[in-house]
Amino acid sequence: MSPISNGQDQHIIAGLDIGSNTITCVIGQTNDHRKNIKLLGIGSVPSSGIRRGSIIHRDLLIEQLEASMNEAETMASVKITKAILSITGEHIRSLNTQAAIALNRGNGSPGTLIERPIDERDTYQVLDLAQAVSLPVDRDILHTLPQEYLVDTIEEIKNPIGMTGRRLEGRVHLVTAATTAMNNLVNCVEELGVMVEGLVFQPLAAGLTVLTEDEIELGVTLVEIGASTTNIAVYHGSAIRHSAVIPLGTSSVTNDIAVMLQIGVNEAEEIKIKYASAKSSMSSEKLEIDLPEKEGQLKRSIPEQEVSSYVEARMQEIFQMVIREISRADIKEPLTYGIVLTGGGAQLRNIMALAEDNLNVKVRIGKPANIEGITDVAEDPIYATALGLLLWPFMANDHMRIPKPRHKGIKGIFRKIRHTIEDLF
């Protein structure tokens, strides 16, 4: 059977999750109502061309991207011509901002005003104005995510359309990224003949498939633990309140084991996966792990609990940084649903127990949901971001993707706002 092109079928969508440890390509199909995604194919290969969101070996990254796409295409019998990409890195910055407009208009008579219902053009104008923040010339807005609206003195309005008042205010969460990092990532994918339809900050994509509506409404923090970064997204009141990137992940754990035991990184990774516990008290004192033998050295072994202590120390550091980021969300009410852990780091043995001890809230492991089809190969938290990319075009409330009412749609996958004043970041 000849593969069809997702450029020819609008119901076919592809996502590329580009991480430091793994590159995953997923291909899905939507139904006519676009409420469900059926997973058709998935391809996953080791990644070594990118670190902390920055490309370190372009040619190698392109080869690995192509390998992951070929694997997914073979499974799905679909030829990828367009895709949505994930992005992370230390260059990601976020902030909350707001803007307001006057709603009343004169009717031609001096000193008289008329009231009219708020429409889509008003909300679009407010969100557009909220993007007019001072950014350096090397930075672009990646996401503009509405939090709530205010009409006069009425707060916490989710949808103001149809209401009347004198003043409309919008509060938004902006995610910005380095222009160079985005362009370089897009160029690598487009060199393979694939058109990039969008870039998505990793935890926002993961949240679409691992978080429930109740969690987003009553408060939850998504902690996506990757290889080189840990991504944070804090939700409350059905909106994102804070997001951030912590420049540490599970590769730091692997490096700690390698240094402490004086072994290779690959050997340390194998020991971490097979034996290590995120909570050392839950590992064995008696079980001895045989270490790789080196020429001229005596045979060595180490207790499982000692290896786990290295893991615990590093993960505790990461969780302390998570606490600091949550505090920056400035949410007065408690986050009812605590923490949801996802990403490859959520696979660490006893990670949930360690998180509960350090964060003093309830914790659960976030596994992908809202996906149909061959889900048996994609039930692991490591695939949360990739599968969330399939849902992003239909579920994301991102102003950057919304065409201007009664006008031509926004060109490009991100919008530039240029200013000449000092860098605020």
Describe the structure.
The chain has 425 residues and is of the alpha/beta class. It has helices spanning 58-76, 120-130, 179-190, 202-210, 213-218, 250-261, 265-275, 304-327, 351-359, 384-395; strands spanning 4-5, 12-18, 22-30, 37-46, 50-51, 54-55, 78-79, 82-87, 93-102, 105-106, 113-114, 139-151, 154-157, 167-178, 195-201, 220-225, 230-236, 239-246, 288-290, 301-303, 339-342, 363-365, 371-373. The chain has a domain at 93-177: Dna Ligase, domain 1. It contains ten helices and 23 strands. It has a six-stranded mixed β-sheet with strand order 15-8-2-3-4-23, with helices on both faces. A five-stranded mixed β-sheet has the order 18-17-16-21-22, with helices on both faces.
Largest sheet: 6 strands, mixed
* Overall shape: globular
Instruction: Give the helix proportion (percent range).
Output: 25-40%
- Number of DSSP strands? 23
CATH topology tier name of the domain at 93-177: Dna Ligase, domain 1
Tags for this model:
six-stranded mixed β-sheet, Dna Ligase, domain 1, five-stranded mixed β-sheet, 10 helices, single chain, disordered C terminus
